[in-house]
Amino acid sequence: MLKVLRNYLITGLIILLPLLVTIYIVTTVFTAVDGFLRPIFELIIGRSIYGLGFVLTLGFIIGVGAIGTNVLGRKLISFGEQLLTRIPLIRNIYITVQQIINALFRKNKTAFREVVMVEYPKEGLYQVGFLTSCNAGEVQTKTPQQVVNIFIPTTPNPTSGMLILVPKEEVIYLDMTIEEGLKFIISGGTVASSDKVNIS
Q1: Rg (Cα) of the chain, in Å, rounded?
Q2: What is the pLDDT of residues 137-164, one digit of tens each?
Q3: Confidence label for 17 from pLDDT (cuts 50, 70 and 90)
Q4: Hey, is 191 helix, strand or coil?
Q5: Is 83 helix (H, G, I), strand (E, B) or coil?
Q6: 66 and 37: one domain?
C-alpha cells in the first residue's frame, strides 16, 4: 500500500511540477513588471486601470521576444547568458532549463527528431533515446553500414547523456512524441504513454 501511495505521489509531482513552475514564473514576472510599471502609468494617466498589470506583463514578454529576434537583441541576450553561465549554481539551473525548453519548443533541424529504442550497452538491454540526425561525411565513409546519431539521455536530467552511432536497421522507432519521451525519461519510466507505443 505504501509503495502504491509513493508511486502516486511521485507521478502526481511529475504531472504538477511543470504546471506549478510555469505558474510561479509567470506570477513572478507579473508581480515584478506590474509593481514597477503600473505606478508610472497610473501617475501619467492619473487613475488606476483594471487589468493594466496583465497588459503590461504581456507587452513586456512580447517586447523581450521582439528584441530577441533582431541582431542587436541577440547580442545583448548572448552577453547576459555569458554572465549567467559564470555563476556556479545559477549556471547549472539556467543551462538545464534552457536546453529542455529548446528541445521542446524550438523547431530546429538539429534537435531531437524521433523517440527511439536501441539495444545498448549489450544485447537484450534496451535504452530509450532520441534520433538527432543521419550521418554523413567521414563518419559514414568509415562505417560499413548506414548509421544514425542517437542521443541517450540520463535520468532524471535528460540534458546530459551520450551520443552513440547505431546502424539504421537496428533502431526501433517508438510512436511517442518528443515531449512524451522526455517525460518518460525524467520520470524514470513512471510516466509512459503505453497505449501509443508502436515498435516498427
Answers
A1: 22
A2: 787 788 888 899 999 988 877 767 899 9
A3: low
A4: coil
A5: helix
A6: yes
Q: How many Å apart are CA 182 and CA 195, to the nearest integer?
A: 17
Question: What is the domain range of residue 140?
Answer: 114-196
Copy the grid coordinates of residue 104. Answer: 521542446
Q: What is the pLDDT of residue 125?
A: 93
> Is residue 30 a contact partner of residue 54, using CB atoms and an 8 Å limit?
yes
Please check whether residues 131 and 191 belong to one and the same domain: yes
70 shares its domain with 126: no
Record the cell numbers describing residue 196, joined without a space: 501509443
SS3 per residue for 153-164 = ECCCCCCCEEEE
CATH number of 177's domain: 2.30.30
Q: Decide the pairing of beta strands 172-173 and 161-167.
A: unpaired
* Residues contacting 66, CB < 8 A, separation 6+: 73
3-state secondary structure of 116: strand
What letter represents residue 40's amino acid?
A: I
Return mean pLDDT, the chain: 76
Residue 197 and residue 189 in contact, taking contact as beta carbons nearer than 8 Å: no
